[in-house]
Amino acid sequence: MNIPLPSNDLKRLVLPTGRLAASPDASGVSREAFWRSLQTFSITRVVIAIVLLIYVSFNGKKTFLEADRLFDLATCLVYLLLALGFLALVLHWRRRFLLQLLSQILADIGVISLLYVSAGGAKSGLAILYLFPLAGCAILAPLVWALFFVSLVSLILLGESGYQLTQGAADVSISQSGLYGAAFFAAVLVINRLAAKLIRQEALAARRGKDLQLQQAINRMVIADMGDGILVVSADGGILTVNPAAERMLGMAFLDAEARVKLTDIAALTPLAEAFRAWLERSAGGLDAPRGGEGQAVFVMIKPSEESVSYAGSAMRGMRRDLVAHLKLRFAKVYAEDGVADRTVIFLQDVTEIENQAQQLKLASMGRLTASIAHEVRNPLSAISYAAALLGEEQASPAQDRLLAIVGDNVKRLNCMIEDILKLSRKAQPQTAPLALADFFAETLAEFRETHGLAADLIQLESMAALQVWFDPLHLREVILNLLSNALRYASGRCGSIRIHAVPDSAGRLELHVQDDGAPITPDVRAHLFEPFYTTSSKGTGLGLYLARELCMNNGAMLDYAYYAGDGGGGSAGGRFVITLALANSH
To answer: For 294, 313, 388, 546, which has the most beta carbons within 10 A of its beta carbon?
Structure first.
């Protein structure tokens, strides 16, 4: 990208290598530096003029009324006025850079030469003042101009010494003036080369800075447009950076970066905080990927709660309580130059859509399988069951009875699996009237307790009075019985170890929570919880939860497994199944 130059003067800057510094990049990135240097040069001139004026005013060797003294004072005063004028010009008129610079240097050399001759030449010690304009010219002007002015100063020094010799001055040495000239030549060359090197370094740094800014802008654009969520956290779990995708997945908008919200401060992010802490422990113990590597993927479910909203305050807004995000997490450490990992990047991937796509593919396969089950599997299964029953009527040995029992149990298991698969093809019936949950649960729980011989106080049901939903009663019965059977398998069996309660919200939705006091499901199992034929029980078919979710989807509802934190009163963290469905009597 070409950067416009302020004037043609800057194009004529010559570096010590003899090449013109007229390229757009070199001149464009250094123009501000040249003007700043000229401003500093002008300010320094004002200071030197003031010092010279004070020096001449308080010089004890001459009286105030002598003509030379008055000339020196007038010269210093004019020099101060010129210095102030040059400073005002460079501050308010940034044009004709080279013309302004050369005018200032000519004025400096003229005034210093007048003072130098008036004070008696080399013996006054004022020759060192020539170094100020010569150094400024060596820094800001092309080398040819710097050599021109140092030659001019050398001629002035030699001319003044020669004039003194013609006047018969005994203490004048022309070699001293020559040494001054040689020293000025050497100083100008060295300063010019050093200044050119610094200019090139500054130009390079400016280009690198622009490249870095451009790369940062590209990174921000890419990160903001990524489908995956990016969460940058510190070692203590403080949230430093969140991209829009992560905000959508977490259901919250982080507004104030200075608030330094931590993962552990928000109840809804407890699963993420626990996964991050576990990954840090594995990394510290050398169980995870080494330096620079990414951690193994873990799966968590994030469900914003009302507590998260009340905590966040001004730091977050737009919390969605109805959002349930199934997230795949990957962790990666970011190392500084000293080898210390002070940042961690958490990659979030919403696998809900992936799960849905996988389930649709499996459902299509299940549909094709269902069409052939009734004819290809049930008929042979009925024959096996009938044959086993005939064999059981005959007098047999205990070993044969045991084998027949095994056959019978497996026939029942296969028959249950077929029944579950066939239920998937039964669609929800159109609902002409809402389903009253109080009557529904009273009938369903009574049947469940009688079937399994349970105590009346084992299942705690909170009041469902006046709650009505849109759901096929047969489908909801299958879902609830499946969840209760699963809870009964892992509950402790104490009073109230299984709990069912409803949580309505203002969006016209109702959440039915089914939970037990057993250990929560691990994240690894959670990742496959609703997959068909996946089970952790040797007696299960792996279709119960899959069937329950499909029935919920057929009725416009959603079944999920949610983690929850302790209640702060001694209650431990755990998990629960959540059915989110439409509330019929909402306003």
So the answer is: 546
The torsion angles phi and psi of 530, rounded to 5 degrees, stand at -105, 20
The 3-state secondary structure of 444-509 reads HHHHHHHHHCCCCCCEEECCCCCCEECCCHHHHHHHHHHHHHHHHHHCCCCCCCEEEEEEECCCCE
- For the stretch 502-543, pLDDT in tens is 888 666 678 899 988 888 888 778 777 777 777 776 666 677
State the angle between helix axes of 131-140 and 174-225 in degrees (0 to 180), rounded to the nearest 10: 40
Whole-angstrom distance, CA of residue 347 vs CA of residue 228: 7
344, 235 contact by CB (below 8 A) = yes
**Maximum distance among all Cα pairs of the chain, rounded to whole angstroms:** 154
Between helix 174-225 and helix 24-57 the angle, nearest 10°, is 130
Which pTM value belongs to this model?
A: 0.41
Residue 66 DSSP class: S
Structure tokens of 524? 């690894």
Distance CA 382, CA 375 (A): 11
Which of 336, 190, 317 shows the shortest CA–CA distance to 252?
Answer: 317
Q: How far is CA 381 from CA 17, 372, 373, 378, 407, in A?
A: 96, 13, 10, 5, 11
CB atoms within 10 A of CB 387: 12
Alpha-carbon distance 143 to 195, whole Å? 11
Q: What are 256-279's pLDDT values in tens digits? A: 555 567 888 777 777 788 888 888
- Whether the Cβ atoms of residue 236 and residue 262 lie closer than 8 Å to each other: yes
Q: Which residue in the block uniquely carries the two structure tokens 């968590």? A: 300
CB–CB of 546/532 below 8 Å?
A: yes
Q: Kindly give the pairing relationship between strand 498-504 and strand 459-461.
A: parallel
Which residues fall within 8 angstroms of residue 485, CB to CB, at 6 or more apart? Answer: 544
* Cα distance between residue 101 and residue 87, in whole Å: 11
Place of tokens 């905000």: 247
Question: What tokens were used for 279?
Answer: 């990954």
The tokens describing 218, both together, are 């590209």
Structural contact between residues 454 and 448, judged by C-beta atoms closer than 8 angstroms? yes
**Which helix (H) or strand (E) element contains residue 102?**
helix 97-118
Strand ranges, E, within 174-293: 229-233, 239-242, 253-254
**Count of CB atoms situated within 10 Å of the CB of 26:** 24
Q: Residue 137 above 80 pLDDT?
A: yes
Query: pLDDT tens digits for 174-206?
Result: 778 888 888 888 888 888 888 888 878 877 887
DSSP H/E element including 515? strand 509-516
Residue whose pair of structure tokens reads 């003036």 in the numeric block: 177
**How distant, in Å, are the alpha carbons of 322, 474, 478, 510, 570 from that of 582?**
12, 16, 18, 6, 33
